[in-house]
Amino acid sequence: MNSWRKKRYTGLILVLLICLTCLSTPFQSFASFPEELRLFAGQNKLLDLDMPVNAEVTVSNPDVVMVNGNSQKSFFAPLSQPLAIQSSQAGHSEMKVKLFGAIPLKTVKVNVVPDLRVVPGGQTIGVKIHSDGILVVGHHMIQVSPETKNSPGELADIRLGDLIVRMNGQEIHDVTKVADIVNKAGNSKKSIELVIKRNGKQINTLIKPGYDVTDKTYRLGIYIRDSAAGVGTLTFYAPEHGKFGALGHVITDMDTRTPIVPRGGEVVHSSVSSISKSQNGEPGEKRAHFFKEHNVLGTIQKNTQFGIFGAMKNIPEHGMMTKGMPVAFAEEVQEGPAEILTVVNGQEVKKYKIEVVHTVKQETAATKGIIIRITDPRLLEKTGGIVQGMSGSPIIQNGKLIGAVTHVFVNDPTSGYGCYIEWMLRDAGIMMKSKAEKNLKAS
Questions:
Q1: Do the beta carbons of residue 424 and residue 233 sit within 8 Å?
Q2: How confident is the model over 359-378, as a mean pLDDT?
Q3: Among 128, 220, 335, 347, which is least packed, fewest CB within 10 Å?
Q4: Dist CA 149 CA 143 (whole Å)
Q5: What is the CA radius of gyration of the chain?
């Protein structure tokens, strides 16, 4: 019995010691010490091990990064003080830390990328996007005889969300061109050869127009659309690259909810005329109108899960900033105070306080990386929180652009999601994918 009690007490003491060790400052510093570190050229970083010992620090490429201002490849440093990482140029380096010059403690891979600065937006913009084909958004029945109704589109297995890219070998982008092709085929009693894009695959099929005895014309029995328009918020403008990013989420067709594959499009001036406030269960919206539509601000080239991207020659008017601001990697975003730039009246961009409530660690691109809460009483009074049309509003923290507003929580409109700016910059073609992402895609 005494032996059993002795073992039990010994076990409890060991568990207590482990817990105390895990809670100690040196252990927590060691656990948080990164294995990989990403920096922009010219950016500095402090790494703290908080250990009362000296260690040998070896840097494989001092031309890329220096530690504690030392240009030598190997030197001794006290770990009781933070190690100051100073990046000077783009490239790769590796830092190894050995206790007493003999015991391996930590190895950190450092990747330095070229310095990148973009101009935060916040301006309300009008968006016109043209689909790369004719989008099928519904079916309708036609009166093919006094007793019979059908939809040739349904009979031919044409589905909602299908993108018709060719009709009888002719590229088709304009819905006004469809009627002539349909009537010509109907009058000659021939079927129409269709090339359709569906879920990333190309499908060849035939459809025979039906004669509508009521309207005295040939029809396909489908509803189609070739463009979409709406209001959103500009996230950033990159003057050195002549590119922009906006919205923070993909544009989908209002009926089919499928992403629009763009053939092109324009970003134009827009002005907020009023706000429908958000309430629990009912997201509000910005009411805005386009103007100066002949004065195109930018052209749309991509529509991805992180927004729309394309070319822009000049910085749009009415922004709060005209000079580039540093951007943050996803791992730099912290829980705590931040700000967004957005418009709630006319075209005036204003800054509003928010709180970054939670961040999601994302090693590869994914939406909903940041959870935010609106804390600014002015914005809450005006909008009730996040409203439709606010998507794309840039999020700024510690003097860096960290992300963009994307979605509102329907049951709590004071809160919502944001995406990391890093993913938007990659889709814009401004920041390259990491080796880890490339290897994951290749595998």
A1: no
A2: 92
A3: 335
A4: 5
A5: 29
pTM: 0.84
CB 36 within 8 A of CB 108: yes
Burial track 409-426 (b if 16+ CB lie within 10 A, e otherwise): beeebbbbbbbbbbbbbb
Q: Which residues pair with 333 in a beta bridge?
A: none
Q: What DSSP string runs through 95-131?
A: EEEEETTTEEEEEEEEEEE---EEEE---EEEEEEEE
434 pLDDT more than 50: no
AA letter at 334 = Q
Per-residue confidence band for 104, with pLDDT thresholds at 50, 70 and 90: confident
Query: Which tokens belong to 300?
Result: 């749309």
Q: Which helix (H) or strand (E) holds 292?
A: none
* Range of weakest confidence among 33-47, 107-121, 299-313, 367-381: 33-47
SS3 14: helix
| Digit-coded pLDDT (tens) for 20-37 | 433 444 444 444 567 888
CB under 8 A, 24+ apart: contacts of 177-183: 178/134, 178/220, 178/224, 182/209, 182/218, 182/219, 182/220, 183/209, 183/217, 183/218
Interhelix angle 25-32/2-23, nearest 10 degrees: 60
- For residue 145, the Cα-to-chain-centroid distance in whole angstroms is 51
Q: Report in angstroms the alpha-carbon separations of 226 from 158, 161, 185, 220, 340.
A: 16, 12, 21, 16, 34
The per-residue pLDDT for 22 is 38
